[in-house]
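Data availability excerpt. The first of two example chains:
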Amino acid sequence: MNVQIHPKGIWHSIALTLLCGYASFLIGCASLPNKTVTQLDQRQVEYVATHHGQPIIVFESGIAGTIDEWSDVFPTISKEYSALTYNRPGHGKSVTTQSPRDGDHIIDELRLLLRQQGYTPPYILVGHSMGGFYMQYFARRYPEEVQALVLVDSAHPKQVEGNGSIEHYPLVFRLMFDWLASPTTKEEYLGMFSTGRKMLTLPTVTGKPVIILNAAKALNDHSPLANDWNAMRWDLPKLYPGSQQIWVDSNHDIPHEQPQAVIDAIQAAVAASTPAGSSSNK
């Protein structure tokens, strides 16, 4: 199979994420300030949080991603709204855990952190790439806890099936994944198959704003795998009737390449999900 790898395409974005996690000091990945750690269920969790009342914006990072994935978005959002971003176990300074790295355990760990920090639902969930995958599962499993959903070039529930499975990835990416991805990242990837299947057995999100940002520049990539990813981008809104899809002039790494698009989507989700006549407690 002849797979083309575009230097500014999705492989560039994911490779950069892996490299940032491996050696951020070498390549200058932006760092989010005001990080702190807490003990949660007898393990250390790294996070950044602000408290301004409702609404509450919750961020979930992509594969191998950390808090720093939101360094160009979180500072603006957190000045106006309550907001939390964190590192899943095994990322950043969050210590690993022996629990399985599937969607059920990951979103329940997030819910526990939110409760510990004094946040009460509903939440506006924002997820990038694999983080969007987890936020979709959160919204389907606990719909009563969700106010709105913002998906930033999110993985599809069937992202790792068929042509999307890792054996179809370019050799250079598979080698980089083997060399640089942590055991936790590999476990999270493997957990996507069962989580995605379970996700699609649950009712979709209804009666709440769902805003889907997708990377328009990725449509310029053409290979069996790139075509599969782009088909997933077109299909995702079909899973959420009434959702709004916005094509962003960006590659996969929208939070860094076009952070204002993410900020605008979050603010639109707040406006669309806040009852008329009420306002956030700032």
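And the second chain:
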Amino acid sequence: MTVTACQAADKVPEEVGAVRWGRDMNEALRLSASSGRPIFALFQEVPGCAGCKQFGREVLSHPGLVAAVHEHFIPVLIHNNAGGKDAAALQRFGEPAWNFQVVRFLDAKGADLIPRRDRVWETGPLAQRMAEALKAAGKPVPEAVQDLVAGRSDEAKLAAFAMDCFWTGEMKLGQIDGVLTTEAGFIQGQEVTLVRYDPGLISLPRLVADAARVECAHAIFLPEADLAALEPGRLKAGRLAGYTAAPVSDQKKQLQGTAAARLNLTPEQATKVNAWVRVDAAKAMNYLTPEQRAALR
């Protein structure tokens, strides 16, 4: 895609994140028709409000989301507070000027693949709409996009596993499928690894069994509502209360000192890379985007 004024500027506006945006809707439609990729159209206020900037910093700069946009969509940016081609695009799509950011998914004729929806301002829900748009376009939903949806699931739950060394806990528990993030911490003076997991991918009893299989945990701390989910006789150490995170120097210890530590990793990426980088470097690299892998060369 042609380098845009937005890309060529000395400083990319914070509101638009790290995506390489096109700035011509007609060109985006042409590229969509020739490539078969749907259009990821951002209608954004630039310069914008604090919420617009946060959306750019946190969502549109998420490495996994940015990589998925570049690989599977034609991204185009429309300023909703400008004239010229931007104003014409607003009129064409019925978008209000000076509005909050809205992402629409279009086919090569400019029709919405899925219904327009505003106030989608978080990574997981936006990734879910990306998946829906790809399905509507007859495209497969790549694993990277599925991971984004799962990694930000509102259904994710917490459990803490006590062990002799939370550095080992983060590594071994992070290797379990369905574990989204890990964190080293303390409960009642005991070293624990706080696990955030997706119950749609792994049940609590299975998570407990997998933790026992890797000889990682000797006590389990759970939110009160989840205590009953364990089978009778399972070792329980009470509620997940009084938890405090360990210092930054104790977090993701396996990752420290590696080349990947220099990258801007999401919490989910950091968990998985930390889990594998010392035992299977090739597998650890699978959790990085192509751009991140290129930065390590």
